[in-house]
Structures are given as structure tokens and as C-alpha cells.
Amino acid sequence: MDDILTAVVREFGPVALRPVHKGDNVGWFLDQMMVSLLVAEWTKRHGSGRIKLVPRDVGVDRLDRNAWGPGDSSGGIADKIDAHLLGNAYLPGVWAQLMPLVRHLYGFETDRYNWCVDYYNSFQKLFVAKYRSQGGVGDS
Predict the structure, then answer these.
(1) Which tens digit of pLDDT belongs to each residue from 115-134?
(2) Considering the entire predicted model, what is its pTM?
(3) Measured between alpha carbons, how far is 121 from 123 in angstroms, rounded to an integer?
(4) Is the distance from CB of 34 to CB of 54 less than 8 angstroms?
(5) What ranges do the domains of the chain cover?
């Protein structure tokens, strides 16, 4: 994580260390600017043959956390090209809501699907151990 922050600060200066406020400000778009720079750098080395500009209709082509519901059938997400994922995916109930998307993207019981499940389970073990080691700090 520190390496990522260092790279962003090197590229964009101290604005990368300021609190981010939603809306029309440089901090809000830093991730997009960083990805654009990385894509431009990649195309210099590898050419642009595999890069494709996709016209957007955000209201139609994005799964949005405010109206989440990809469902178990692919019909609800087949035409989506973007997702603003649910927050706190480490929580079991939230993770369960993400699983239809994981199944749609990777299939069921594929190597990538199993990697996601294993990653979540490993994170849960670490998260719970850390929580218990701090005596349940954060409980209300």
C-alpha cells in the first residue's frame, strides 16, 4: 500500500495526501488519472491494438452500489461494463451479495472463482484474529 501511495504522490504531488471530497476536484479523479497515465505508458510499449474506447451510458452500463442486484442470472449483468462495488465486502452478508457477480464473471468452481472464495476466507481468518486480539475494539 505504501508503494502505491508513494507513486501517486510522486505523480500528483501533495494533493494525493489531502482528504478526498466527492465531486469536482482533483482528488476525486486521481485514480482515473493514474489509470489513464498507466494505459498511455502501456500503449507506448505494446501498441494500442488491444485498447478499445467503450462509449458509456453510466445509468445503463454500470452496476451501482446504490441499486445493487446483479442476481444469479446473467441477464441482469450481461451488458454491464463497470461496477461500483458494495463497501465492506469483508462482511459476510455483503460478500454474499457480491457472489452472483463473481459467479457471472468467473463461472462456478473455476480456478478464479475458487481464488476469490479462498481470498475471502483467508481475509476473514486474519480479520477475526485481529479483531479478537484487540478485545473486540469497535463493538458498539
Answers:
(1) 999 999 998 888 877 777 77
(2) 0.58
(3) 5
(4) no
(5) 2-46, 58-133
